């Protein structure tokens, strides 16, 4: 810090205002600490502004349009659906603004000092913030880093916001592109690719690996893949895009598929090949911190880095890039700073992919449990045998339960089907509390409801299922 600059003293400074940062700031303030939150953009971070929330709004709009067109068999005939993307964007932005406004109100109500600017660590207890009016300086007792991540940009396909899009630009389109290439068959690519296919785009997914959604149980992915083909999405696996040209207002992308070179034409290309942690240009070297080869910071169970005064949470730490993980880590860090014996020790963290149908998993798969030397039993129940799913025209998919054979303790639950994102909450609580198969299937579930698939899958694993034939 330059001699003569006056630093504002604060007990806790939080850098980054996403679902990790703002939660950390609020929780620390609730515990009586003086807190300053610094964010270079709108509070809410990527999740509220350019990720989780706007993407799910777009996905819901697309699902609504598609549902209207496939209601003929129920006796509901629709002559056509017109998609006004400008109005869709207005509605989506209204949802985002309502939530970010709520976060701003909560920060204010809890007495958090919010500063807009770009922060850099200058010394063990000082940061500088470049704001619109100049530099400001803060002296802190503890710092929580919550700077999140950003889309990976490929040198051969640099984002230009017009033809080559990141997820950020894809969420702000005011026209549905007639043709869309999606480079990367991971969760972001499939979520947005599915949405635009339902809105009217001809979508082609290009995935370098042998399967979509690498790392996800193939039996879950198979249901999603089948539905992608139903809505006209072309899927190219073991395919590599090597370059492109723009001719007459269209992309001409060269792709190698099974040893053959093809040129695909499209109006837009969405590149979703991963995310990179935002740990550069933070001044970490000033306090002796160095990210690993992946750009991540090591932390202990209280989210403390190797520097005793500095904590890190969310996408810049090891583990899945999930907003709810970041929020939990935020609470742990804030409570640790306040002197509480808080620790990040969940038994399992759920993960959700908002494809059609949704995929949600928590805990161990059968293969993972066996790799750990466990004797397991599994149960499975299809949504096609669930009354509620059939009445909502959503009978694709299934729920599977993995449990320890001897004790019946539930180890994992895996769902592909309607509202999997909601159902997985019950499964997560069950695993966290050490529930057994009997706890699941002896608990009376409401009928007709989608939640019955959890009860029925557990009953199947325990050999007492009523609503499906006994397996031989």
Describe this structure in words.
- Keywords: Disulfide bond, FAD, Flavoprotein, NAD, Oxidoreductase, Redox-active center.
- This is Dihydrolipoyl dehydrogenase.
- Its cofactor is FAD.
- Residues 11-330 form the FAD/NAD(P)-binding domain.
- One of its GO terms (molecular function) is dihydrolipoyl dehydrogenase (NADH) activity.
- This protein has 13 helices and 22 strands.
- The chain has 3 domains: 7-151 and 276-337, FAD/NAD(P)-binding domain, CATH 3.50.50.60; 164-273, FAD/NAD(P)-binding domain, CATH 3.50.50.60; 351-461, FAD/NAD-linked reductase, C-terminal dimerisation domain (Enolase-like, domain 1), CATH 3.30.390.
- Helix 3 packs parallel to helix 6 (187-199).
- The strands form 5 sheets. Strands 1, 2, 3, 4, 5, 6 and 17 form a 7-stranded mixed sheet that branches.
- The radius of gyration is 24 Å and the shape is globular.
- With 472 residues, the protein is of the alpha/beta class.
């Amino acid at each position: 810090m330059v001699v003569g600059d006056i630093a504002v003293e604060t007990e806790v400074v939080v850098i980054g205002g996403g679902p990790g940062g703002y939660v950390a700031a609020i929780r620390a303030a609730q515990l009586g600490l003086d807190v300053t939150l610094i964010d270079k953009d709108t509070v809410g971070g990527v999740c509220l502004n350019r990720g989780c929330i706007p993407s799910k709004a777009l996905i819901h709009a697309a699902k609504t349009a598609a549902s209207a067109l496939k209601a003929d068999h129920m006796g509901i005939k629709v002559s056509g659906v017109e998609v006004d993307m400008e109005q869709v964007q207005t509605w989506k932005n209204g949802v985002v603004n309502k939530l970010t406004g709520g976060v701003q109100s909560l920060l204010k109500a809890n007495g958090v000092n919010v500063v807009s600017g770009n922060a850099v660590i200058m010394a063990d207890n000082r940061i500088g913030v470049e704001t619109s009016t100049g530099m400001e300086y803060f002296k802190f007792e503890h710092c929580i880093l919550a700077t999140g991540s950003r889309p990976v940009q490929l040198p051969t396909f640099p984002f230009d916001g017009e033809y080559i899009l990141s997820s950020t630009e894809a969420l702000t389109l005011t026209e549905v592109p007639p043709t869309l290439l999606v480079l990367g068959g991971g969760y972001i690519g499939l979520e947005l690719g599915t949405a635009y296919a339902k809105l009217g785009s001809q979508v082609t997914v290009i995935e370098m690996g042998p399967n979509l959604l690498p790392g996800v149980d193939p039996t879950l992915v198979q249901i999603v893949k089948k539905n992608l083909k139903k809505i006209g999405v072309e899927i190219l696996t073991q395919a590599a895009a090597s370059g492109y040209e723009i001719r007459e207002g269209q992309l001409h992308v060269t792709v190698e598929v099974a040893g053959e070179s093809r040129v695909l034409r499209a109006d837009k290309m969405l590149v979703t090949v991963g995310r990179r942690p935002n740990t550069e240009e933070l001044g970490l070297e000033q306090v002796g911190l160095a990210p690993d080869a992946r750009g991540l910071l090591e932390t202990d169970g209280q989210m403390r880095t190797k520097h005793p005064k500095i904590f890190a949470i969310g996408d810049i730490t090891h583990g899945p890039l999930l907003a709810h993980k970041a929020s939990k880590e935020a609470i742990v860090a804030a409570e640790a700073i306040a002197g509480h014996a808080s620790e990040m020790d969940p038994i399992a963290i759920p993960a959700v992919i908002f494809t059609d149908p949704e995929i949600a998993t928590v805990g161990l798969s059968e293969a993972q449990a066996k790799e750990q030397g466990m004797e397991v039993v599994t149960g499975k129940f299809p949504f096609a045998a669930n009354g509620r799913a059939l009445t909502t025209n959503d009978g694709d998919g299934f729920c599977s339960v993995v449990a320890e054979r001897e004790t019946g303790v539930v180890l994992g639950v895996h769902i592909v089907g309607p509202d999997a994102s909601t159902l997985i909450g019950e499964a997560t609580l069950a695993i966290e509390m050490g529930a057994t198969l009997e706890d699941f299937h002896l608990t009376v579930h409401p009928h007709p409801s989608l939640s019955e698939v959890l009860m029925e899958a557990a009953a199947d694993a325990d050999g007492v299922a009523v609503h499906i034939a006994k397996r031989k």
